[in-house]
């Protein structure tokens, strides 16, 4: 079995790994709220779009995920998610790839006594998420 577990996921943005910065990550597809639906969209049953959501540690180091998000606000960045942590995709352990548009700058700060300040993100995926098996 190739069940997905919460201890192996790796995530890269623009070829840089940020696995040690990201606490949670989801890719989800939902019906588009677009007011413009083409005949092709309607014939296919509707229009859909992907979002990437998650949370990560605040870290002002130059190589951190937080800094990449801060510096990349408003830009489109390619990503690769390996749910099984494998370096090479396979049929049983595929990778998922796409491009996200980085949203607003990440939060700064938190509550007294917290061990690590975190920030949440929700970004639109541009186009489709591609399942890569080889």
Describe this entry's structure for a reader.
10% of the residues lie in helices and 41% in strands. By secondary structure, the protein is mainly β. The chain has one domain. It has a 7-stranded antiparallel beta sheet, with helices on one face. The protein is globular. The mean pLDDT is 92.
In brief:
By secondary structure, this protein is mainly beta.
- Helix and strand pattern: EEEHEHEEE
Strand order of the largest sheet: 2-1-5-6-7-4-3
How confident overall, as mean pLDDT?
92
Structural class of the secondary elements? mainly beta
Helix content bin:
under 10%
The total tally of domains equals 1
Number of strand elements: 7
The stretches of 5 or more residues where confidence is low (pLDDT under 50) are: none
Give me the number of helical elements.
2
Gyration radius (Cα, Å) is: 16 Å
Q: Strand percentage, roughly?
A: 35-45%
Cα separation of the termini: 18 Å
Largest sheet: 7 strands, antiparallel
Shape: globular
């Amino acid at each position: 079995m190739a069940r997905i577990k919460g201890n192996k996921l790796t995530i890269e943005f623009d070829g840089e790994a940020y696995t040690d910065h990201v606490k949670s990550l989801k890719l989800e597809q939902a019906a588009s709220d677009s007011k413009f639906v083409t005949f092709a969209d309607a014939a296919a049953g509707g229009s859909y779009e992907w979002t990437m959501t998650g949370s990560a540690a605040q870290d002002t180091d130059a190589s951190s995920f937080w800094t990449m998000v801060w510096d990349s606000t408003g830009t489109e960045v390619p990503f690769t998610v390996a749910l099984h942590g494998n370096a090479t995709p396979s049929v049983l352990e595929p990778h998922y790839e796409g491009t996200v548009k980085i949203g607003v700058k990440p939060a700064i700060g938190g509550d007294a006594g917290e061990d690590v300040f975190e920030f949440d993100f929700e970004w639109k995926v541009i186009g489709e998420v591609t399942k890569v098996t080889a």
